[in-house]
Predict the structure.
Amino acid sequence: MRQRWSAAALLLVAAAGHCQAFTPAARSTCTCTPASTRAGRSNGLACRALKEPQSEEELRSAIATKNEDLSRMDKDRLQSFAAADEEFLAELLKERSYLSIVTEKAVETVDSLLTAGKGGDANAPATGVKPKVIVLGAGWASHAFLKGIDTDMYDVTVVSPRNFFLMTPMLAASAVGTVEFRSITEPIRNVNLGANYIEATCTAIDSDSQEIVCENVVCEGTSCTIEDFRLPYDHLILAVGATSNTFGIPGVREHCIFMKQVTDADKLRRAIGNCFERANLPTLSDEQKQAVLTFVVVGGGPTGVELTAELRDFIEQDVPRFYPNLVKFVRIKLVEASDRVLMAFDEELQAKALRDLTERSTTLISQGFIKEEMTEVMLNVGVKEITDTTISLSTGETMPYGLCVWAAGNGPLPLVVEAIDQISEQKEKAGWGRGRLVTDDWLRVKGAKGVYAIGDCGVVDQRPLPQTAQVAAQQGSFLARLFSRGYNLNAPVPEKTGGAKALSEQLGLSSDKSGKFAKGFSFMNLGILAYTGGGNALAQVQVDNQRVKGTGAAGFFLWRSVYMSKQVSWRNRILVAIDWTKARLFGRDIVRF
């Protein structure tokens, strides 16, 4: 017998209403309720009856059609949220004072101490099914997110080809043996024991099915195979970082060493030893020895400057003991395309860095090892091409070299480039993102539901921030708090849907005054540091509108203190302290395996 349905079963909500229990099983229970604005004012109710369906299939089709209509209307409402609540949104996103951010960070620290160890069943979702959160990457942003995420609320999985966190600012020191590689790494599994880790590389993101495609290299004996698999997600955190930008210059990728991974630092350490052993062969002329012992660093940012400084220290302090006959042939050249090094620092500190890097080594000169300064900083000089033995410069000069390190900027990883190509809204903002995923103020990737970008692979729309470990760590902590405090991240403005208010929310520091809506991400500049060699360092700390600066021994003390405090475990702190002491007492280890 033909089923008949009451027209009341098809009462649907227009732009201002909600339809509850709209299923064939509840044929006449569709209830239209008024939607309310943030302040609780009724927007009114608009329902209308549709043509009575002739079958259950027709009813289901009508339901699907109207649900799509409602979804589109809901999306339109979300897009118009900023216009309708401009004043409210401006309050959440306005630039906060330095004092306000400092206060918030202090209160967040107190919150973390008060809530430490208070997980358990109380935080578990009511349905018993945890939303799946996948984190791609094992760097600063990922580490901070994992430290803050509540694994009683979420099923967290980390996917990365690297099973450890790396203290990247100390790569330069590890490359010359000032510290050991294992002293600046920490197993990613130690960060959050409630999270699962899978050693694999994500090769693609299927946003339609909300899955990622991964591959893992499995080796048995002398044979290796690649295994592909897929992982579903409810929330995907992209924290994959960036790669080195070669700017399309011929020969860079083939002949240069980069400074992104432990393997890069290890490769550089071996290459330095190779250069000295090659130069020590009796078959080489003096001209050939000087070419082999010419170390070129391209890029005048913190990585390039600190590597130049560490190289200079190694040559001044250790090479005279092991290769006294080769010291006079060593040349270090720092090549920078602009007219300054360390662009983020004030001009007076930039000038101090140049003096520290090129200062005459009185010890080596007095002992007769060298007659002239071995370090040269080449400003306003670009690189046109690199071969296995020479570098062609923009000045027309061709410079022979033995080793070249490329530290000249960041570029996007293939996974990020592919994601940008797949998302229409990201394509539209490609000029702004410049190879990075554009996010809103809550670090949600624009145009991709359930996807977030933190660290070097993302950039907040119209609010660019430097690609530093400091920014990445703060973004990771911020996003973890939004997840762990029960915010609905699918709402236009993340809205608290459950759980007790944290202290910072009660005080209106991390949310609006009601404690219901989350404020956007705000970066707190804790300052910048750079080692410039010979026990000297630069420190520039931002305090509100003032900058506190330190140089020389004072800067060096601050630099080492901060690097020690930023180690992620007491194991790392102890190992780094031991390495510094060993290098000071016994010199750097030049053994190659």
Summary: The chain has a mean pLDDT of 83. The longest strand covers residues 211-220.
